[in-house]
Amino acid sequence: MTSLRGRGRVPSAGRLGLLEESAPGHLSELGWDNDEAADVLWSLSRAPDADLTLRALMRLRGAVGGGEWPEIDRLIRTDRGFRGRLFAVLGASDTFGDHLVAEPDSWRLLTSATVPTVEEINTRMLASVDATAEPGEVEQGNKLYRAGLTGPKAVVALRIAYRNLLLELAAHDLACTVEDEPVLFLPEVGGFLADAADAALTAALAVAITEVCGDKPLPVRLAVIAMGKCGARELNYVSDVDVIFVSEPADGMAARIAGEMMRVGSLAFFDVDAALRPEGKAGALTRTLESHLAYYRRWAKTWEFQALLKARAMTGDLQLAADYVDAVSPMVWTAAEREDFVTEVQAMRRRVESLVPEELRDRNLKLGSGSLRDVEFAVQLLQMVHGRVDEDIREKATVDALTALTAGGYVGRDDGANLNASYQFMRALEHRLQLQRLSRTHLLPVFEDSDNMRWLARAAHIRPEGDKDATTVLREELTRQKARIRRLHEKLFYRPLLEAATRFNTDELTLTDKSAERRLSALGYAKPERALSHIRALASSPGRRGQIQLLILPSLLEWIGNTPDPDAGLLNYRRLCDVMDEAEWFIRLLRDDGVVAERLMHVLGTSEYIANLLMRSPDVIHLYSDGANGPKLCEVRPEDVARGLIASTVRQTDLKRAVAVARSHRRFELARVASADILGLLEVPAVCAALSSVWAAVLNAALTVAIAQSERDRGEPPPARIAVIGMGRLGGGELGYGSDADVLFVCQPEPDADEAAAVRWAQTIAEKVRSMLGTPSEDPPLEVDTGLRPEGRNGPVVRTLAAYAAYYEQWAQPWEIQALLRAHQVAGDEQLGVDFLHMADRIRYPEGGVSAEAVKEIRRIKARVDAERLPRGADPATHTKLGRGGLADVEWTVQLLQLRHAHRYHSLHNTSTLQSLDAIGAVELLGENDVAQLKEAWLTATQARNALVLVRGKPVDQLPAPGSQLRAVAYAAGWPEDQAAEFLDHYLRVTRRAKVVVRKVFGA
Q1: Whole-prediction pTM
Q2: CA 55 to centroid of chain Cα atoms
Q3: pLDDT (tens digit per residue) in 38-71
Q4: Are the CB atoms for 695 and 761 separated by under 8 Å?
Q5: List of E strands, 353-444
Q6: Pick from 851, 697, 872: which is nearest to 773 by CA?
Q7: Which of 9, 351, 572, 606 is the most buried (most CB within 10 A)?
C-alpha cells in the first residue's frame, strides 16, 4: 500500500481529519493517494464527518460495482458541484449513505445542478405508483388521481421516490459546506419540503382511492388541508404533517379514503396527523364544510384559531379546500376579541414549555427557553392582534410574517432583522440534527460531547475563528442566539409600546395608539387605554429615571402581563414609582437585579394586600433578592423580628408613638411574610407561625408600653401583673392574614394591693391596649377580640387568676372548655401566663376525661354550627372556614378527640391543629389515611383563605365562582393561572374526603 505523504501537495490522513486506522488504505484503494487527487482530498476534509464520508464511499463503490464506479470517480475528480453534493450528504447523514447503497442508481440524482421543480416533484411521485388523473378533475384544478400500484409495493415505491427527493434537497442544501456552491436559504428548503409533502400525499391519496373504490367512480368530494409547518410551507426534513379533511358528504366512504391515505402516508413518508381537526382525535375524521364552520363558531378554542393561521389547500378537491380556507380565515382574525383569548394563549404557552423535561430545556431547539417556539409564539400572537385591521401581515410562514410585521411597523427594524436571523440559524441547526439519521429530533448534543458538537458545527458550515475551533464557535453562537431570541421575545410586545408612547424612533415604528391598545388588550389588559397612559407616564419620567424605565419596562411589562390582573399590577407599579420618586436605589435595584424585578411584578399583579403594604414599607423590596443561602425573604427569623419589634416599641415613652412603631414593624413583617408566601417560598405552617409571632410581639410591646406609661403617670409600681392568653388560632400559632387576635386578659394583684383597685387598673390597661391597637389606619386591622372570655361579651374583660379558676370549675360550659384547648400564653407576665395554663389544664384535660354530657353537647353545638352559622348565600362546598371539610370541620374534629382522649395521651396537650393531628395519628386514634386527609384539608383551606385575603385585600372566607377572581386566587395559592378549574377541583376533592372523616368522628 502506498502511504500518504505527510509533506508536499498530498495531505496526510491526519491533516484531512481522518481518524480511523482504515482511512489510508481506503484512500489507496480509491486511487486518491496521489497529487492528482489533492483537490478531492481537501474537499473530503471539509465534509461534516470525513471518516463517515469515506466509509460511505467505499460502500457505494461496492454497491455500484466496477461498471459505474469509474464514472462516479471521474465526476468526483472533475465536477466540483457533484463532489460537494456527494461528500456533504454522505458526511452529514448515515441514513442517506444507507439509501445510496440500497438504491445504487440514486447517485445519478446528484449530478443535477438544480433541485427538481414543483412539476417534476409531482410527476415523479405520481409516476412511482403509476397514477393517472381522475377524469375531469385535473382540468378543474383538483389533485385527484388513481394509482395503478397498491398494497405494500406501492408503499415501497413511494418511500423510495420520496427519499430520493429528500436526498436531492439535502445534497444541494449541504453542498456549500464542502464546495463553493449556492446556499439554499430556509424559506427555499421549507418550501421544497412542503411541495414534496404535497406531492407525496397526493400520491398516497391516489393509492387510497384505488384501494377503497377500486374501479368504481369516486363518490365523494374530499379535500386535504395542510396545517402547521407544512401549511406554512416551512416544513422540516423530518416532521409530522398535520392535515384536516373536508368532504362532501362526510360519510363512511370519505372517512375510509382519508384513513387509508393517512395509513399509506405514515408508512411511506412521515406521520400524517389529523389531531388538529375539530374535537381532536375524538372527533370525526372527515366533516362537511358546514360542520367545520358550525364547530368553529360555537366550540373552538383559541389555540384552534391560532392553528388555522397556517391552513392551506393541499391536495384532493382543491376547490372545496379553497372554500374551506376562505370560510375559516376571517374567524382567525376575530379570535383576539374573544373573552378568554389572553388566558388561553398564556396557558398554551406554559403548556408547551412544560412539555420539556427540566434537564433537557437547554438542549431543546424547539421548546426550550430561547427556542424556535418563542419566536413562533410571539409572531403568531402579534399577527392575531394586528391582523384584524392589517391584511398585509396575514402571512403563513414565520419568516414571511416577521418580515411583514417589521415592514408594518409592529416590530422595530433591528429587532425584526435580529429575530429573523436567529430563527433561521436555529432552524438550520434543527435541519442538520434531523438529517443525521432522518429522525424527528430537536435535541442538541450535550455541550460536552465534543465529537457530536464538532459534527454539528461542520454540518452547519460553522468554521473556526481565530484561536477558537468550530465546536467552541458553535457553543458560543448557540448561547448568544438563544439569549437574543429570549430577550427579543420578551421585548417584542412592549418595546414598540414604549416607542409609540414616547413618540421616538418614529421613522422605524408606525404603531398608533389604537394598535397599541389592541396589543395591550390581547396581552391581558382589560383597560388598555389606561395601561397605555401608565406606560406613557413611566416612560416619560424625567432624567435618569426615565432612561432606566425605558430600559427595564419591556421585561417588567412582560412579567406583569403573566399575572392574573395586569391592569392592577401596572397601576400598582406606577403608584410605587411615585412613592419611591426620591429613592434612587429602587429603580437601580430593578435595573440591576432581574430576580427582584420579576418577583416584584409577580406580587404587584397578584396581591392588592401586599401592594398596599409595600407602598408604606418599600424597604421590604431589598429582601426580594437572593443571598448566599437563598431568598433573603426567608433568611429572617420570626423570633428575631419579635425581639426587634418589642425593643423598638418599648423605647417609646408615648403610647401613640409606640403603637405607630409597632405598626411599622408589623407592616414590614406582614409584607415580608406575604411576599414570601405568594412567591412560593414559604409553606403554610411557616406563614401561620410567622403571623402569630408578630401578632404576639405587637401585643407584648403594646402591653409593656401601656404599663410603663401608667407607672409614670401614677408615680408608683403597677398594682398587678398582667398576662395575655392567646386563644383560637393565635393560641395555636396558626393565624392567617385575615384573623383577629382572640385573647383573654388575666391579672394577679400584688400582695399589698387592693384587689378591686388592681383589677380596675388592669381593666384600664387592657382597654387601652385594645383601643390603641384597634385605631383605624391604612394598615391591616389590629383587632383584639375578647369574645371568648367567661360569660362572653357580658363578662369583665379582665379577671384574676383565681376568678378564672372559680368560674371554670363551677360554671364552664362545654364550648368554653373546648375553647381552652387552644389557650396559650403569648404576652405579658410569663409566669402568670404559665400559672393560667396550669389552671386551664385541670379544666381542659381533667382526670378521666370530660364528661359524656359535655361531649354530647359539643356534638350538638357542632350540628347547630353546620346548620345555622354559614352566612346567607354562601356555598357550603367552597366556604373555607365553615364549609364542608373546611377549617372549622377539621379543628372541631381534632378538639373533640382531645376532649375525649387527652387525659390518657399527654401528646394531645397541644394547641396546634397540625401538631395535634400528628399526635392523634401517633397514638392511633385515627388511621394514617384519615389523619392525612384532615391535614391536607386544613392546609388546603388555610392556603385558600390566605390567598383570598392576599388577592382581595380584606378578610374573605368564600371562594369565588369560576372566573377571573378564582383564577387570581388560584394563582396566589401557587397554581398556574390556567389551572383555576384544577385548583377548585382539588379543593372540592380534598375537603369532601375530609368531611367523611369528620362524620366518622362525630358519629353523623
Answers
A1: 0.78
A2: 46
A3: 999 999 999 999 999 999 999 999 999 888 999 9
A4: no
A5: none
A6: 697
A7: 606
